[in-house]
Amino acid sequence: MMINPFFFRDIPSTDKVFISNLLGEWSILKSREELYALVSSSLKGGQLNELAAKGFYSESDTEALSFSKAAELNLTAKFSKGLFRPSLIMVVPTLRCDHDCAYCQVSRAPLSSVDHELEMKPAQIAQAIDKIAAPAFKLEIQGGEPLLRPRFIIDLVKELRVLRGHGFDVVIASALGPDMSDDFLEWMHTENVSLSVSFDGIPSVHSKIRKSRLFDSFERFKQQLKRLSDANLSKNVGFVSTITREIIELGPRKIISACSDLGIRRIYSRPIANYGFATVTKKLIGYSRKEYSDFLEAYIDEIVKSFQRGEVFFDEGIGLYLSNLYSPELNVHVDMQSPSGYALSACIVNYDGNIFGSDEARMLFESTKNPLLPLARISGSELLENNIEGHEGLISSSFSECSPLCDTCAYMPFCGSDPVHHLASQGDFVGLKPNSGYCHHITDIYDILIKKIGNGEITNKMVVSWLKR
């Protein structure tokens, strides 16, 4: 019996050890003693058979060679995802916004601005997208507040339908501030448009942090949800929450209760990002790594309790990591791919005609105006490439399999790289991982999930139910 290469990590606050390999297989050992038994090939019975089936052991040189070939094929399939055109295309028709969110990542512009509109005709944008996008793709309309430009959205989709038929889906990311006409709601229903709606989990926090000078943001949010429901669009709405200090202080049960009161069963939560206005306000409404980690653990505990009570509530942000553990081959999250999904899985057309390889790159550009950040620019019917040398360097630096400290991390097969985060926070594409907020966040979530899976608090039945679409 021979041991195949594997990674291991002690699970904090337990005696257990997490092991993984390049096949994307993993297991949880009860103790360091079991780890030593694995290394010395002295495990027996069912545990030995299980680990052998997952590729941690080989019984012969032939099996060891088969493991190496399988690992190579797995990595080839993983890397080849980036050899195709981007499947996520984002467009920013305006940077203007009717909200003044305290943690705005995109450096929003005031409603009165005349300098933050995408002035090119929808047909021109559609032609550029046709040259860039994969055969099947998702069109995500971003902002600012994109619903300030409903006619542009309708016309863009119409032009793309001419070029691409029904080979793409449409998502609008919105805070639901602007009025939506009956015609626009009917169009969304006809086109089966999805909405990614901002809701900060707790009404009082939403009104305070995601405020507007024009209306009470939570009351407007409720009114707009009713309009969407009346237009038979409720099933098309997903919710995104940004966690702030006040939410952490109020506690996760408040989130679940508030969402349940509104009929929200699934929400995608995320920490405050270090872009745009959030780089300043984070000092006032942010939190320490430990505070956020403690909140996440309590939040997951509450989600588990909800499941045990027969309630239907889940957080898609947590589901992302569970999905990567149980189906790593299906990982399509741009920020968790190796190499990075930057320009390979995603592209964004900004309001100024600049094209970026990720949403984070355009956020960083808004605050720095670094001319090297755009990949290209749309001019008339032409795509004018920027100097791509730096972008090639970004992608070549984003293979976590050969990145310092990532290359020995047990979570590496289920993780990826966010080079723009490290560029913004540390000044280079790779970053020093012990100082990386990106690394801290992902490691902490996996530690919590693995601990709860190992303790039997998260069961296979829960995972199947949560990840079911």
How does this model look, in words?
This protein is α/β, with parallel strands linked by helices and 469 residues long. The protein folds into 3 domains: 2-80, no CATH class; 84-287, TIM Barrel; 354-435, no CATH class. Helices cover 43% and strands 14% of the residues. The protein has 18 helices and 16 strands. The protein has helices at residues 32-39, 45-53, 61-80, 122-132, 150-164, 182-191, 203-209, 217-230, 245-250, 252-261, 278-285, 289-308, 316-326, 359-368, 389-396, 419-426, 437-454, 460-467; strands at 2-3, 7-10, 17-20, 26-29, 57-58, 88-91, 137-141, 168-174, 194-198, 237-243, 266-271, 314-315, 346-349, 354-356, 376-379, 382-385. The strands form 3 sheets. An 11-stranded mixed β-sheet has the order 12-11-10-9-8-7-6-13-14-15-16. Helix 4 (122-132) links the parallel strand 6 and strand 7 (137-141). The longest helix is centred in the first third of the chain and has 20 residues, at 61-80. It is globular and about 70 Å long. The two termini are 41 Å apart. 44% of the residues are buried. The mean pLDDT is 93.
